[in-house]
Amino acid sequence: MANPRPLPIDPLAEAKRQWIAHGWTDAAGGMTAVISIMRAQQLLLARVDAALKPFALSFARFEVLRLLAFSRQGRLPLSSVVSRLQVHATTVTSTAERLIRDGLIVREPHPHDGRAAMLALTDDGRALVERATDALNDEVFSRPGLSETDTADLVGIVARLRRDAGDFTDPRPLPDPL
After folding, report:
1. At what angle are helices 59-70 and 78-85 packed, to 10 degrees?
2. Among 47, 37, 38, CA closest to 2
3. Could you tell me if residue 21 is inside a domain?
4. How many domains does the chain have?
5. Do 43 and 78 fall into the same domain?
6. Range of weakest confidence among 25-29, 86-90, 147-151
7. CA-CA-CA-CA torsion sign (169, 174, 177, 178)
8. For 102-141, b where at least 16 C-beta lie within 10 A, e where not — what string?
9. Any idea where the HTH marR-type domain is (predicted)?
10. Residue range 39-57: mean pLDDT, rounded
11. Is the pTM of this model over 0.90?
């Protein structure tokens, strides 16, 4: 996704200039913000993908494994995985099937609901997600490309955007601010 060499101009600055030139001044700042976030997501996802490639994991597969590894017993109901990852059930089911095929998780019956399924981490899955997490921490998360202050400011701004869009509500009592 990244260019082999930087462009001579910032295409988003040029897009903003064009927006203003075409009379869309009121929308120019918002367009620039939205497209900037989308481009940053592409750049960061490329780094994440590169860090996970040696483990044959997509970020979606990593997220399922990491979520299960964070749980107390290495297992969660499928519905909880869907809810916590905020993706469609079909996506989680498809991702889970690939992880099952690769021996990284197993599907188990739910202990209290015969209609529901549990996803459980295998020993191989736990070992892989720990190695992949170390790689992500080392190659991406410990050096996101921003100073600590800018990182904290960005997380706070994006958290407000997400909250105001209805992505979550502030829990009570409030945790430390992002």
Report:
1. 120
2. 47
3. yes
4. 2
5. no
6. 86-90
7. negative
8. eebbeeeeeeeeeeebbbbbbeebbebbeebbebbeeebe
9. 30-163
10. 97
11. no
| Residue 103: CATH number of its domain | 1.10.10.10
The domain in which residue 105 lies consists of 56-134
Instruction: Say which DSSP state 22 is in.
Output: T
Tokens of 57: 């994991």
User: Distance (Å, rounded) from C-alpha 143 to C-alpha 147?
Assistant: 9
Which residues, other chains included, contact 27 with Cβ-Cβ below 8 Å and sequence gap of 6+? 19
- Identify whether the C-beta of residue 3 lies closer than 8 Å to the C-beta of residue 42: no
Q: Which residue is it, tokens 């997380």?
A: 155
Question: Residue for token digits 């991702």?
Answer: 95
Torsion angles phi and psi, residue 97, rounded to 5: -60, -40
Residue 5 has pLDDT above 70, yes or no: yes
- pLDDT at residue 85, rounded to an integer: 93
Q: Judge whether 148 lies within some domain.
A: no
Lowest-confidence segment of 77-81, 129-133, 144-148, 168-172 by average pLDDT: 168-172
Residue 92's pLDDT is 94
Residues 35 and 61 in one domain: no
Structure tokens at 143: 């050096």
Q: What is the mean pLDDT of the chain?
A: 92
Confidence grade of residue 119 (pLDDT, cut at 50, 70, 90): very high
